[in-house]
Amino acid sequence: MAKDYSTLRLLREGLRGHTGWQPAWRDAEPKGDYDALVIGGGGHGLATAYYLAKNHGLKRIALVEKGWLGGGNTGRNTTAIRSNYFYPESVALYDFALKLYEGLSRDLNYNIMFSQRGLAVVAHSEAEMEMAARIVNAMQINGTDAELLSREQVLEKAPLLNQSDRARYPIYGGIWQGRAGTARHDAVAWGYARGASTLGVDIIQNCEVTGFLVEQGRCVGVETSRGTIRAGVTGMAVAGHSGVLAGLAGFRLPIRSFALQAMVSEPVKPCLDTVLLYMGTGTYLSQSDKGELVIGGGLDRVLSYGQRGNPPLQEQVISGMLEMFPSFGQLKLLRQWAGIVDVVPDSSPIIGPSPLPGLFINGGWGTGGFKAIPAGGWLLAHLMATGEHHEISRPFDLSRFTTGRLIDEAAGSAIAH
Amino acid sequence: MQRFPCPFCGLRDETEFHYGGEAGNDRPEPAAEVSDQGWAEYLHIETNPKGRSREIWVHMTCGEFFLLERDTVTHEVFASESLRRAAP
Ligand SMILES: Cc1cc2nc3c(=O)[nH]c(=O)nc-3n(C[C@H](O)[C@H](O)[C@H](O)COP(=O)(O)OP(=O)(O)OC[C@H]3O[C@@H](n4cnc5c(N)ncnc54)[C@H](O)[C@@H]3O)c2cc1C
Ligand SMILES: [Zn+2]
């Protein structure tokens, strides 16, 4: 059982040369049989395991991860957290996540470094200002915080922005969500892992699911690289590999896998204290606590499972950044990487029962599921424990592709990440 | 920058191409008899293979539609084949 982290303990350990710290979670060996099994050790899977134990009191839970915890998109993303979506269903989902994030460090007794530094989306024409006003109105009606910013207000928040009248994307104003921000991605994975492990969850790394056990038409467990594991109920949260797992389970999904890349600059002194996105360039930036500028943009255009990212998109993202912050042209890039994201036609996640009874899905978060981790885990846990949708997850059921009731955020808010 | 082979133009930059969909996802007929599930399969559902994949692409600069066989992990291209029929 992990001891609580506190200032007092930090002090004590400091005096004892830090020899008393224990690993934050148990690296468990697989047992043959569990009540609930979660596939995928990213944020969504780990949060699912945590809430299965915490909210539903399940005792025999395992989580299997083919690599290491947080080695997928959870450890590769640019950590923007926000709920500036257009449709009521989406705001209900993402604002639920944002609220959980607001209390998460305390709930997990683990500092996830959630910094509500606000997020500005900059508009570049009168027409885009109308779009911005429409989204701000929708957000307010849906009950989350949003403000329309003037040009002056945008420049007050980010004075290094390109102020030239000859800019290709001049600043007209923008959308502001003050409760948005960033969190430390690894800490979210590790905090949930520690919380789950403390509540008795077996976290099993280096354990790849290679097949599903099906008896009388129902999923009763999985085959893995470390043997067979039986389970009363199974949930999967494998992001870009959703299609591969679906293939193993004998069904297909409305998901395409793409590489999404990001990069960081060398660390510099504090110069950007919000998250900033340009509608025009699609490039967005924030500054990490270490001082690196964290830079991201759109998807690579070629469907891919190659976790690296192609040069044309990198060039586009960087030229976008130079348009926004000409002075950042002096910076050197330190690292560039990519994750494989699970893109759905309406840019909304899929949460619900799969076509194989006994197997539930949490996926399709595409370019923007880090912000949703607490909610995604909460809702998948609810489904697995009760067999029923939570009111917030119901609209995101797989059946919407048959009924046609899509939640088209690509069209509604036109913002990724 | 990767280069893809257009059957008409030869090797061109990847940015000149647009992905059309998975090969073999033919429009179900007759339309009046297609179930909702059938339309969902046709419009939205994907195999999304990891590894060897057969895809329809268009070379936007010349308008050629073609079948591209490639690997979705390594991005290696195996073959490209025009979808045009010979003129009568
Ligand atoms: C570059 C980039 C920038 C992003 N920026 C943002 C952002 O700013 N804000 C935001 O909200 N979102 C962002 N995202 C999206 C976000 O990272 C993801 O939506 C989110 O992390 C998904 O979490 P997950 O737990 O579902 O997936 P992952 O963290 O990818 O976890 C899935 C896990 O499943 C495991 N797995 C796969 N197959 C198997 C198998 N057969 N057996 C066992 N385990 C398996 C994988 O190894 C992986 O660890 C970004 C993504 C990328 C790549
Ligand atoms: Zn051509």
UniProtKB/TrEMBL annotation, chain A:
InterPro entries: FAD-dep_OxRdtase, FAD/NAD-bd_sf, Rhodanese-like_dom, SoxB
EC annotation from Swiss-Prot or TrEMBL: 1.5.3.24
Entries under SUPFAM superfamilies matching the protein: FAD-linked reductases, C-terminal domain (SSF54373), FAD/NAD(P)-binding domain (SSF51905)
Chain ranges of the Rhodanese domain: 38-80
Keyword Cytoplasm carried by entry: yes
Main location: cytoplasm
Needed co-factor(s): FMN; FAD
Substrates-to-products reaction catalysed: sarcosine + O2 + H2O = formaldehyde + glycine + H2O2; sarcosine + (6S)-5,6,7,8-tetrahydrofolate + O2 = (6R)-5,10-methylene-5,6,7,8-tetrahydrofolate + glycine + H2O2
Any Pfam family the entry gives: DAO
Record's keyword terms, sorted: Cytoplasm, FAD, Flavoprotein, FMN, Nucleotide-binding, Oxidoreductase
Subcellular location: Cytoplasm
Family of the protein in this entry: Belongs to the SoxB family.
Protein name per Swiss-Prot or TrEMBL: Sarcosine oxidase subunit beta
Taxonomic lineage from the root: Bacteria, Pseudomonadati, Pseudomonadota, Alphaproteobacteria, Rhodospirillales
Automatic annotation (TrEMBL), chain B:
One Pfam family recorded for the sequence: SoxD
InterPro entries hit by this protein: SoxD, SoxD_sf
The protein, known as: Sarcosine oxidase subunit delta
